[in-house]
Structures are given as structure tokens and as C-alpha cells.
């Protein structure tokens, strides 16, 4: 009964590996019921532009640095999306006390245009409806239905802009106690303008734009004095927090300057990808040969487990998805070495037990049991180092850390679970008595 359980486990492992392999490389059998998903490649493998901007926060209070930078990141990401860039990377990074914005645009054809658009300071403005508002709305509806013609903005710019806004923050409706909203506050001059603007537009929408894109169109319920107001709607907490960040980014004078630009051509990216794949394949083959020569039959099955490990690892990269860069490929190849390291510890312990005259089944179980503490300690310290790299590192270092973390966790599963079940098949068979296969 116990042996049947081992056979079932191995069957399940091969079934999972089969589908994972076809998910990794769908051209192999072209199984149509598996979802089609490409690997997410970084710009060093796909080609593109890597931009580094530094933000001038001289006019911002230190306690508002984080929210200002996150709001700026949201605005820049929105601009980048206008280019149709596939999954751009826009992130904030602090280096030696300097707040920087990292922008990675994989596959961008015209980086000069991207630099020009990204380099502008976020612009916040309020707009009121035009006199022929309803006519424009109806005209836009017909244009949308017909699929031809030009849409017209039904709103006209008001005198109120982001320079009058003092602060925007997340709040909650006092009557419901749970509904998220955004509280805004203007300076003295802005308060007067806002009061006149709301008095003039009672019962009408007042649109809020950042970079010419409407982010909220609340309806004015009454004239608002004192320079304080609330933007309410069907917001989640995160949506309201994001809106507050965007408002602050549009209101604050937050200029950014380009300090670094790196471009990778698509041809060079393709060459890097091909060379990385070849390095991974040759590295895997070298490990397989080493394991079979030095550990014979256990080495053969450890190599099979290693191939399954690589297949599952690549499938996880697609599913999560992980952005694969040259550094990330390095982390993946390193994790293959860690997977082998676990098997070597197990087989060495197993050999010692066999040489002491223990039965094969006892030597197998004892070898795995005694090797586990060393495997755990080695992998745990590696995970700590990888997590520190992910927490403190830049974008490329984070790519290395992510693939190393995934690979390390999966390598422990490969060594302890997959290899162990493969070797359990030989318990009670004639092959377990052939010493040359095991020692």
C-alpha cells in the first residue's frame, strides 16, 4: 500500500511537470486548453530605455516626501501608459538621501518622446462645465456610437489650479464611518476662488484634471467657504488614498531632472536573451553530468528532479509574473546550484549510512533526515540575504533577488520531496542491493 502511494505521488509529479512544460513552451504540443502567456522580459532582454530622474523636494516638508514621490510616480506611470508601453516599470528609489524615480520602458521605439513627456511637472487644474454642456455630451455620444468624428471636452478651464491647493488627504464619511473620501484644503487665495466657483456651479459637475486627464468629477452640492471640501464617491480606501496622492503631486512644485539614460537595442536584447538561455542550458547539463558521474543512480534521478525543478520554476516565472532580466537569469542559474547542493548533502549522508551496513530503506530515510538541518540552514541564510537585496536593492538587484527567492524555495521542495520519492521506488527491489549503483 505504501509503495502504491509512492507510485501515485510520482505520477502526479510527472503530470504537473508535463502541463508546466507545455505552459512554458506551448509550441511543444500546442495544448489549446492551456492559457497562452508570454514570459515578461526586462528591457535588457527585450530592448528599451532605462531612465533615472531626480526630484527636487526643496519646497516640500520632509514628512511629505513619501506621499509626494508616490503621487509623482502615479502621474508618471499614467503618462507612460499613454505611449502604449507593455507593462512599464516606474518606481521610487532613495539613494544617499536623494529621491529618484526609475522608469524602465521595454520596447520603446522613440525614447526622446518619452523623455520629453515624462520630464514635465504634474499639472492639476479644476474645470467647470461649458454653457452647451449637454449638447457636447450628446455630440460625443453620437461620435462614440458612429466610431468617427472628434470628441470635444465638455469642460472649460477655471482659474483654480493646483498652485492654490495646500493639502489633500484620505478621510472617511462621518455619517457612515466607513465610506472613503478625500479631504482637500486650499490656501487663503484659493479658498476665495473655490467659494466663488462652487457658488456659481451648485448642482453642476466640477471636474478635477491631472495632466489633462479627469481623475474625479464631483457634483457641487452647495457653496463651500473656508477653503475645505470633500470629494466623495464610491471609493475604496486604496482608490481614495491614490486620489489624494495624485492631488498632492499636482499641487506641489515637484520638478524632476533626468540624470541618467541607458538604451538597449532590440537586437542586443535578443542576443542577451539567447546567451542567457544557452548559459542556463549548459550549466544544467554540466550539473547533470557531474551528478551522474559521482553519484550514479541517485545522481541520475536527482538530475531528473532538477529538470522538473527548472520546468516548474519557469512556469512560476510566467504565472506570477516575474520580469526576467539578465540579473534575474543569474539568480535562476544560481538557484539551480542550490538545488544540487541539497541533493549532494542527502546522497553523502545516505552513502555513510549504507557503508555502516544499514538497510537501503533505513539509509534512505536517515540520509534525508540527517541532511535536512544543513539544507535548511544553508537555504534559510540565503533567503535572508535575498530578502535584504530585494528590500534595499535597485530594480536590477531586485530582479536577481526575486528569482533567487523563488528558486531557493522550490529547490528545497525538489531535493526533499521529488528526489526522495524517486529513490523510494527502489526500496525492496533487487537494485537496492547493487552497491555500485549507490556507493
Descriptors for this entry?
single chain, 439 residues, alpha+beta, Multidrug efflux transporter AcrB transmembrane fold, Gyrase A, domain 2, 4-stranded antiparallel beta sheet, 12 helices, 19% strand, elongated
Plain-language structure description:
This protein has 439 residues and is α+β, with helices and mostly antiparallel strands. It folds into 2 domains: 2-41 and 265-438, Multidrug efflux transporter AcrB transmembrane domain (Multidrug efflux transporter AcrB transmembrane fold, Up-down Bundle); 48-262, Gyrase A, domain 2 (2-Layer Sandwich), CATH 3.30.1360.200. Helix content is 56%, strand content 19%. The chain has 12 helices and 13 strands. The protein has a 4-stranded antiparallel beta sheet with strand order 3-4-2-12. The protein has a 4-stranded antiparallel beta sheet with strand order 6-5-9-10. A 3-stranded antiparallel beta sheet has the order 7-8-11. Strand 9 and strand 10 (213-216) form a beta hairpin. Helix 1 (2-24) packs antiparallel against helix 8 (266-319) and helix 8 (266-319) crosses helix 9. It is elongated and about 95 Å long. The two termini are 29 Å apart.
